[in-house]
Amino acid sequence: MNQCIVIGSAPVKNLSIFREYHVEDSFVICADGGLDTALAAKIKPNLLIGDFDSIKAQPPAGVETVRLMREKDDTDTLSAVKEGLHRGYKDFILFGALGGRFDHSYANAAVLQYISNLGGHGVMVSDNEKLFFMPGGRLHLRGMKGSTASVYPFGAPNATVSYTGMKYPLTESVMTSDNPIGTSNIIESDDATITVLGGNVIIYVLSGEKN
After folding, report:
1. In terms of C-beta density within 10 A (0-12 exposed, 13-18 middle, 19 or more buried), how is residue 40 classed?
2. Residue 203, pLDDT score
3. For residues 108-126, b (16+ Cβ closer than 10 Å) or e, as one string?
């Protein structure tokens, strides 16, 4: 197992999405109420972690459990990621981290930056959405023609970005945090790219939508 899957408490409506990510070959951590989603998807986690204030199901017997204090500095998702990093994992897929409360979703985006800062890579996945954090480099959006992509500076006041294969191309354009010009671009190529030449960004992809 070289991939860590973290399942958080936000709703996951399409449980079949887990089949795309080789859950059976991953180390699975359920953060608090993420256990309810895992059990509904017939996934047995390797580890449970949280203060368990949002869990409905009873934890299955024989699963390693880390119980956290309710009053703490780290969110349950960050605690789960820290545990995965401690166990040597660098690649993370976060489910149940988008689509709930805005403050929780924002905090989880910060967790992607935390993973990156420690040399790892993470992506947040929901039913038809993905969120990436990039401190630089190039992201290939293969097979996503017709989807919507939005790019915003994150953890920095600005970022320099180029696009290819998008309806509204950019060439070394400086995006600022107070002007959301990166909203709702359309992917028009099966091998579109987003290149970050300076600063940090989050990239949001909505599959198969044109908004």
Report:
1. exposed
2. 95
3. bbbbbbbbbeeebebbbbb
Query: Model pTM?
Result: 0.89
Measured distance CA(119)–CA(103) in Å, rounded: 25
pLDDT in tens, 19-65: 888 888 899 999 888 899 999 999 989 999 987 776 776 777 788 88
Tokens 């795309």 correspond to 20
Stated as kind and residue range, the H or E segment containing 160 is strand 158-164
Distance in angstroms (rounded) separating the CA atoms of residues 40 and 18: 11
Query: How far is the C-alpha of 5 from the C-alpha of 109, rounded, in Å?
Result: 15
Specify the DSSP element, H or E, that contains 197: strand 191-198
**Range 6-20 average pLDDT:** 89
The strand pairing partners of 210, in sequence order, are: none
